[in-house]
Amino acid sequence: MGAGGRMPVPSSSKKSETNAIKRVPCEKPPFTVGDLKKAIPPQCFKRSIPRSFSYLITDIIIASCFYYVATNYFSLLPQPLSYFAWPLYWACQGCVLTGVWVIAHECGHHAFSDYQWLDDTVGLIFHSFLLVPYFSWKYSHRRHHSNTGSLERDEVFVPKQKSAIKWYGKYLNNPFGRIMMLTVQFVLGWPLYLAFNVSGRPYDGFACHFFPNAPIYNDRERLQIYISDAGILAVCYGLYRYAAAQGMASMICLYGVPLLIVNAFLVLITYLQHTHPALPHYDSSEWDWLRGALATVDRDYGILNKVFHNITDTHVAHHLFSTMPHYNAMEATKAIKPILGDYYQFDGTPWYVAMYREAKECIYVEPDREGDKKGVYWYNNKL
């Protein structure tokens, strides 16, 4: 971490722990967004319709091939082999569909093409297919990008202060409790956030992504919430008809389980991007957009970086320039790292290790004690 470069994972676990918790600077950076933009080659900001569609079509073809093999050949396998074939299908299909989710997410950022109508059409179709209310989430996610790192205004994975920890929190602060909490978070976290704003910022009123009159949205956005709901209902009706024709078990195996994996990866990726012992949070007296955008960390998911279209290892650049297409984000990240210096965070800890570590280390935030910086908060785990 730091020095604008990627740190290899140290062989010594003690050294790894030391590097992992090195805090980022929380002072105002000596550079501006303009400085960072000037360092990035201009072509990185260009959106190409053919190139964007090439990634989407590739994902669709791969997912269709998995579906074809599962529906036409799994029934021919001897009984013991099918027990291995289905989990392999679920894992592979879930990963590929996560890539589709990422491309639809790019549409919400207007990073797919130069045409907003095209971005919204593609995003609505493919997010609806994955039971995501496209416009509803587009608007709340935009506010997340506008308020990242703010304890009062950020939209998702807003950390609690110690006084807000429930009485039973100390009983979950153990290996079994952490595994249970992570399991619930990955299985139910995404639908609970969409339906009931769990882990989101507090609102006055019923904050639901499916409710057009929710306080999340302003009057100009409410009509599009109805459109999002219509997209979800259309897909649900299609799934109902499929289940009626092919059976509920077929629908669950071919679509339901991969969707659970998509949802789990979505929560995992977002959680690890914004939860790290080295990252600060700010209250309203100290927060500004640039420092908030830098309060995120790039991670390494191995081969899945490519499957997920590099949303995992270029997230810092994405928060700085969210309209940049994913296929240019690696080049942009390389260009800005020398300027960011210690403000750039990369953690190469394997994701399956990092998720448990962050669940253990990042329970709540408390005001800065080491440097007495008012308005700056860091993670702690002492209950």
UniProtKB/TrEMBL annotation:
It holds the Pfam family FA_desaturase. Residues 85-345 form the Fatty acid desaturase domain. This is Fatty acid desaturase. One of its GO terms (biological process) is lipid metabolic process. It comes from Capsella rubella. GO terms for cellular component: membrane. The gene is FAD2. The chain crosses the membrane at residues 53-71, 83-104, 176-196, 223-240, 252-272. GO terms for molecular function: oxidoreductase activity. InterPro entries: FA_desaturase_dom, Fatty_acid_desaturase. It is found in: Membrane. Belongs to the fatty acid desaturase type 1 family. Keywords: Lipid metabolism, Membrane, Oxidoreductase, Transmembrane, Transmembrane helix. Its main location: membrane.
